[in-house]
Every structure is written in structure tokens, then in C-alpha cells.
Amino acid sequence: MFKLPEAWVWDFWTVDDGEQYHLFFLYASRALHDPHARHYRASVGHAVSSDLTNWERVTDALVRSDAPAFDDLATWTGSVVRHPDGRWFMFYTGSTLVPETGANRQSIGYAVSTDLYEWHKAPGPVLQADGEIYETYAPPPEGNWHDEAFRDPWVLRDPDGDGWHMLITARSASGPAGDPADRVDRGVVGHAWSADLETWELRPPLSSPGQGFGQLEVMQPFVVDGRQVLLFNCLVGDMPEAARSSGVTGGVWIAEAEGPLGPYDIAGAQVIEDPSLYVGKFVTDRETGETKFLAFVHDRDGAFVGEITDPYAVTWEGDRFALTPALTSVGSSGD
């Protein structure tokens, strides 16, 4: 288990350089007292491991920029890929407050490294919600969401070798209408494409609104035992009233898919069994080739926890997805 005595740890992403696993994670000081305040104080930390269990914390990867900047409030969740020329690209979410409305505007930028330890931000942002394909913030009563959701970039190579694709937590600019409760149901798999990782083209979403989710956070397409899935996250409070009243528990969700770029069965997604977990991630164990699952512990007995689990083994039980705690050695506290 990875935890810090002085800070909450939550969203994270990993990359394997062939010798070590690298864990990039959001963290904020517990001196804030209120865990909800962590979002506006988030930096990106970094730890390394040889076994996905024992982690050594190293120099932080990113901090927010000086104002004015698209990431002058906080740096949020992202992903890391390697360019064919050997450089590592970290795509991340930048958060800033819009003075006129006080809204939290989220945009996407990137930083570059040659060694995964020292990162240099590129001028940004490289992608923002456009108001035509993807919803931008509007204050009440016209607005129907609490911020400008456009974040959590997950970047992958095109399956046919044609450039790079980015999956984005976003909301459709069109979809269920009516009163604000109906308009909640606009969460989609946002999409962008790039030939070179530096210049990006915004494209229509890879899923449709009206599938039962206000947002699909921190997505990851993955093949588990030969079955293509899309992993995403949504708390019950960010689902339409019909879903909330049905008694469903939010958390980590898994949807069947035909390929990494869809189509995805979002409406038929199943929630992973432990509702205390959030932001699940699949990782391939380099030694065994097995798929492992990590997540952060969101809450326990009604209190926010903020620590990352040891890896779980994953299996299919028919059409149900199951987690089993893996046999591990004593994990690092991150000290």
C-alpha cells in the first residue's frame, strides 16, 4: 500500500519503463483538514517500484504554474506515453478559476521528460472544451454541471498505427434536455487525435450521452483475459436521479467494448465490487504477464482515506468481474 503520513493521495497513473514501474499520483497536505479542499491544492508526486507493492518516493513531477495560466490552480490527472524518438510525454489536466463566474475550468496540457524524473511543461493548453461538441460551463439556472468538465487525458497509440488518440472525461454539448436533473446525463468519452503528440485535433465523442453517467472519470481501455473493456469511474452523486434512486452504488466501473476506441457498452457497465475504491487502474505484471488492478481508497466508515492499494489479481466469473487481493510483501508508506 502506498500512503503518505502528511498528505492525502488519490488519482494516479502508472508507466513501466522496462526496469521499474513509475507511479504518478495527486497529493495534497492533510494540514488542509478538509479533504474536499485537496482538489485545489493538488500536485503530481512520483514513486518507483520493482514489484507494484514496495514504492520509493522520488522527486515530484509537476506543480501548478504561476498565474495567469491554464494550470495555475492545480495539476490533475493524466497519463504517460513514449514518443518514438524516446521522449516521455505526460499529458495532464490543468485547473484554473474563471474570474467572471468562479467556475473551475479544466484544460489539457503536457510535459516532456527524457528520463521520467525531470519534467518540462510545454506551452498550453493544447485542448479545451469548445462549447459545440463538448459542454462548457454556464452558471445556474442555464447551467447543469458544477464545473467545466474536460480532464483526465488517457493517450494511446492508434490500433492501426495512425497517430495517437486521447480519451477525455467530458460532457456532451447536446443530449438529454429538460430540467437540470435530466441534463445531468451527458457524460461521454471525449476524443482527440494527434499525429505527433504535440498538436491535437478535437473530435466528436466516442460514446453517446444519456447512458446513465454525469461524467466518466479517469478512463482506461484495456484487454483483460482476452476481453476488451473500458475502465472508468463515477460516484453515485454524479449520476442521474433515476440511477441514484435505483440503489446503485457508484465507484469503479467496467464496460465491455469492441476495441480500445469503442464502441463501448456504457449503459451496461458493471460497478466493481468494493464501493470504497475509486480510480481503478489495470497494470500488466512484467514478470508474469498477468493483469493486476490498483485503486485508491476513497472512504472508510464515511471518512475520506486517500491511499493507494496493493495490487489485486483480476478474474472473470462468467460475465462478472472479480478482484482478489494478491499475495504481496509489506508495502511502502512512501517515506
TrEMBL record:
Keywords: Glycosidase, Hydrolase
SMART domains attached to this UniProt entry: Glyco_32 (SM00640)
Residues annotated as domain Glycosyl hydrolase family 32 N-terminal: 19-228
Secretion signal, residue range per the UniProt entry: none
Family (UniProt): Belongs to the glycosyl hydrolase 32 family.
PANTHER family reported in the protein's UniProt record: BETA-FRUCTOFURANOSIDASE, INSOLUBLE ISOENZYME CWINV1-RELATED
Protein name according to UniProt: Glycosyl hydrolase family 32 N-terminal domain-containing protein
Native organism: Terrabacter terrae
